[in-house]
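> example.struct
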């Protein structure tokens, strides 16, 4: 077990996790998560035999008696008698699809896609393989490719619920709200369907004038950076109000009571799942306009929730809403923590295929050793770090990282864990040998109410080639149902405290995070891993639009 010592001062703080961790039938995500591998009874998780067979490149069913090995003597005799290599017996129907689904459930999406392709070479109408290819394309955010595969899947099985949900996600990410709404209505998600169908004749997230409309960029100063970034926003022509920035949120959130004052109507209510697995009612509606500095957006979907508890992270100032990933998805968005600003640039569509590498563009054994030394010395690497990510559901940004040098796992990049770096399920606590500070149990605040938190220290935490040491973390906010809610394992939430030294760019075309150090010079910049900024109370800096 790795040792852990209590941090200086009072560790129990008004922690906030506004992350919209949907894992139920009508969570805070845009629609249900109905993947076939969401539980231990699904039968899709790969067995030990399946994992070994897959990694060795075999595609047939490892339990197929026809594929069992003959005694070596008999095999040698057979090879001598036949001029050509004997053909392998054909795998049973569905066997290789089992392997593809197993790799998908293990988070090995590239291998799952490869195996599904091999199945389709032999059986072009294998539904499960077609569906896997559609789901992996959706994770890669290749929407045209995903749509083609999913439509093919629905030709084979027109009523398949998960394939219809995935196609609805393609429409949603493509801003085809009426098409997404029609599918969701058929699936019984009436509240979300009503929200999206209410956009009839309107193109969502329209940019009105300003530098972005002309291909430039827009910068909005943070009102505060710690423990969470806050910016000033105008909604439907209101006076400027404070909104949190949180990639754990999907759509824009607005305080339920204030929404009535600015003309936002709720068209339906669903149940959202938040930090600690707590739930709360979430309303759905539409915003006419949202202004961030000179950036004005028209016709945005909105979720309605009581945001008054979030004032705890803004020195008591009223928080009226949250800006989430779906808004950021429409731009090349940068959270520049060192400079204290939010930047929007136009997206940059690319043709080159993005393959998962498990590490960023800066990686490999040599750079990993350097990263470990820098983290130990409290330094940042001098160059930007590129970390590939996948996009699940409508807002789950997933990238590979490691806690305490355990095997790399998928982490949800959710910036809304106030001042802290990491939280995770019990399984990761055990795998990484983390010792909880049970004597320092406290309470935090999440979207669904109070959350019990238990602090711990990680000796190391990495994201791709980015690495930091001795960071404050908590156990408790991670909802138990999130871990397998997307059909594969999410091993933790990596957040504000880890990302704080960098300007973090979310590129939804290259499908990578870019972590740029302050100044971006040839000399490494010192960072204070042990400064515990989340415990410092700083006054809010007033800033105009």
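> example.seq
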């Amino acid at each position: 077990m790795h040792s852990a010592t209590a941090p200086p001062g009072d560790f129990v703080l008004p922690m906030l996790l506004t992350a919209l961790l949907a894992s139920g039938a009508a969570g805070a995500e845009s629609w249900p998560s109905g993947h076939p591998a969401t539980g231990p009874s699904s039968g899709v998780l790969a067995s030990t035999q399946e994992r070994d067979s897959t990694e060795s490149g075999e595609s047939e069913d490892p339990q197929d008696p026809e594929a069992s090995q003959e005694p070596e003597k008999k095999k040698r005799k057979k090879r001598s008698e036949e001029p050509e290599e004997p053909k392998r017996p054909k795998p049973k129907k569905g066997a290789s699809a089992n392997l593809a689904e197993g790799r998908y459930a293990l988070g090995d999406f590239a291998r799952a896609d490869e195996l599904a392709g091999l199945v389709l070479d032999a059986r072009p109408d294998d539904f499960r393989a077609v569906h896997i290819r559609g789901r992996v394309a959706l994770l890669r955010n290749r929407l045209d490719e995903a749509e083609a595969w999913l439509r093919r899947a629905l030709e084979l099985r027109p009523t398949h619920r998960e394939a219809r949900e995935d196609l609805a996600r393609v429409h949603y990410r493509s801003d085809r709200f009426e098409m997404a709404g029609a599918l969701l209505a058929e699936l019984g998600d009436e509240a979300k369907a009503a929200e999206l169908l209410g956009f009839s004749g309107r193109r969502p997230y329209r940019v009105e004038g300003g530098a972005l409309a002309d291909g430039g960029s827009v910068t909005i100063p943070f009102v505060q950076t710690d423990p969470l970034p806050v910016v000033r926003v105008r909604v439907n022509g209101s006076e400027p109000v404070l909104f949190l920035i949180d990639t754990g949120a999907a759509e824009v959130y607005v305080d339920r009571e204030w929404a009535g004052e600015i003309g936002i109507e709720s068209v339906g209510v669903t149940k959202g799942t938040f930090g600690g697995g707590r739930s709360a009612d979430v309303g759905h509606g539409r915003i006419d306009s949202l202004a961030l500095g000179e950036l004005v957006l028209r016709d945005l979907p909105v979720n309605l929730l009581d945001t008054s508890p979030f004032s705890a992270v803004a020195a008591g100032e009223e928080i009226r809403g949250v800006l989430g990933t779906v808004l950021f998805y429409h731009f090349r968005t940068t959270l520049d923590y060192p400079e204290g600003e939010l930047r929007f640039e136009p997206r940059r569509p690319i043709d080159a295929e993005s393959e998962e590498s498990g590490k960023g563009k800066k990686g490999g054994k040599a750079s990993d050793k350097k990263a470990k030394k820098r983290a130990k010395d409290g330094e940042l690497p001098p160059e930007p770090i590129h970390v590939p990510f996948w996009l699940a559901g409508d807002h789950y940004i997933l990238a590979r990282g490691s806690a305490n040098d355990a095997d790399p796992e998928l982490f949800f990049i959710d910036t809304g864990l106030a001042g802290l770096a990491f939280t995770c399920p019990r399984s990761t606590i055990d795998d990484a040998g983390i010792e909880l500070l049970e004597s320092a149990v406290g309470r935090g605040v999440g979207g669904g109410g109070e959350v019990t938190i238990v602090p711990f220290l990680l000796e190391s935490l990495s994201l791709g080639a980015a690495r930091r040491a001795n960071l404050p973390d908590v156990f408790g906010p991670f909802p138990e149902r999130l871990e397998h809610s997307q059909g594969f394992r999410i091993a933790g939430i990596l957040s504000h405290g880890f990302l704080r030294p960098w300007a973090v760019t979310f590129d939804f075309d290259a499908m990578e995070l870019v972590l740029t150090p302050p100044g971006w010079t040839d000399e490494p910049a010192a960072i204070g891993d042990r400064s515990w900024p989340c415990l410092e109370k700083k006054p809010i800096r007033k800033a105009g639009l």
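> remarks
Confidence is low (pLDDT under 50) at residues 1-28, 32-89, 352-367, 522-545.
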